[in-house]
Amino acid sequence: MTGKRYFRFGLCSGLLVLALLLSLSGCERQPTAREFNETVYTFGTLVNVTLVGVDEAQAQTAYTAMLDDFTYMHQTWHAWQPNALARINGLLKTGVPFSLAPSILPLITQAQTLSAQSEGLFNPAIGQLINLWGFQTDSRDEHAPPPTPDEIAQWLRQPPSMDDIVIDGLNMRGLNPQLQLDFGGFAKGYAVDVAINHLRELGVENAIINAGGDLRAIGRHGQRPWRVGIRHPRKEGVFASLEIEGDESVFTSGDYERFFEYEGRRYHHIIDPRNGYPADQVRSVTVIHPDGATADAAATALFIAGPKDWHRIAKRMGIKYVMLIDKGGRVHMNPAMQQRLQFKYTPEVLLSEEL
Fold first, then answer.
1. What pLDDT is attached to residue 80?
2. pLDDT value at position 200?
3. If I label 336, which of 89, 166, 181, 193 is the partner at 20 to 30 A Cα–Cα?
4. Distances 273 to 5, 155, 158, 259, 276 between C-alpha atoms, Å
5. Parallel, antiparallel, or unpaired for β 349-351 and 331-333?
């Protein structure tokens, strides 16, 4: 991994969000604040780290520790490389009990909890289906066709879920030969949580980690809150903006992130495990929640739930702030989220009951 690092004293800037999922903007005159910025490529995306109110030595120590965390997690959790997760996937298919690395147990148990809360809409057990669609790689052959209806139907004969994993202490076994874990739907959020917790242990009180537009922030950006812009799902630039402070994560799932076109039809990477096809009722979902892993998983689950069921699933997952943009461009959200957003456009808004 490589990155560009710089350290500033008394400079004011907006944090440019990479990958254009979200963006931080705004610059005000304010009292001098020490600020450290670093951008690095990991987890298949650009990760921007900003630390405020730290001296250079503390910033370097904190950044190095965070980088070590990300490197270890990326190498361990990548679903399609020879690593601990690949070993687990191979053994799950056999149905035979095996010992589990303690470092990966919390990831799997939290995924099981979030999957149950989402009524299975967030389902990291569908790695085989992800592979069938070709989304296991960032360099999918753009000329490759989507899976055939027969291939989808074959997978649906015995669709796996997180309930097909039995854990007993540090032992695990699978109950479905089609089990294949792929944590792409929330590993980034989980990794951001781990990194933020580590930064706090090192005395950092004001920071933001932005992983390709999905982020968690603690404290403040100097004398003001952190400012976040949510990307428009169909146009360049920002659709809406909000401010966060204290400790919050903002995660977005969109149909514009990874997709391909075949014979005039567009297919994106957010697959509905109930029918085996990309969910087709939503353009994007943005979620605010204290921890990144939950926000990450919820954004995926609510995208699949769609306009009809998002409110029920959000309530089950303990989500208090949601904005969903449906395929017609209408905005669905709860009143608490509406109070926090400032829109650049004037969308048609369908307000739900309180969460």
1. 67
2. 95
3. 193
4. 41, 10, 11, 17, 5
5. parallel
